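Exercise 7.
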Amino acid sequence: MSLGAVFLALGIGVLLGVALGENGVVSGASKNLEKSLRGDLNDARSTNSGLRHELAIRDEYEQQTYEPLVKDLLSGWRVGIVAMGGLPGGYAGQVSDAIEPAGATVDSVSVIQSPLPLGRLASEMKGTGLGRLDRSMDQLQRFGRRIGRQLVNGGSLVGRLRHDLFSGSRGEYRGLDGVVYVHEANGLDGRDKQLLQWISDSQISALIADNYGVEAVPAKDAGPGEHPALPIHHHCLFKLGINLGEMWYLHELAMWLRTHKRSRFLLTAPPLRLPGAVGSPANAIATV
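Solution. The predicted structure, written as tokens, is:
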């Protein structure tokens, strides 16, 4: 018998012995494993109990201090909720509960259809400068800006298109002091060819977002053939040289631009020096 055959037989014997006859070995290993797992489980339960206690303390603190802290901060404000595609159940009530202690009320709730019924909207706008919005990106953009302004400031166009524009709405569009904007999903649709063309035509220098992704992932199915998995990344980074930014804090900048009726600013965002990397945290600063 060769040495290799001896080792093979020895190995088979060890396996058979452990499986069939060496109960002591298996039993000892099982007990040690069981003891270890029980210890981990007890530790996890103890940690979970401590965290629950800390959360209870935090919740009680928030309940006691929220109303005094926000009292009259939004006194007399009329707030509108504008949702794209859909509004989660109970969301309007949660917004109302949050703003009422500050003196504000929810004045209107609008759920805009997604996708928009462009054909019906174009028919309604026939004879105006927006009668081809279903075929003209420029007219569609002007229509969107006009509707957005009227949702906030009031106007006749919103009332005229109410049944075609909204899948659900309540309240009157008579001017708002604040808007809660709700989008059904984070990220832009990378398969939208008109969106990609707008990015090319707009001459923007960067595309940034305050959520975890500029682009919705995974992208919609593009049909047969080869297509980029992330169309906006491919279009911006490789074709146009436009940088993408994600998880940026934009609230104060947005409020300042709105107050001063501006939409442009100087952006500097030097990244870390990471040779070979495909992304980096950036020290982003907006100068206005």
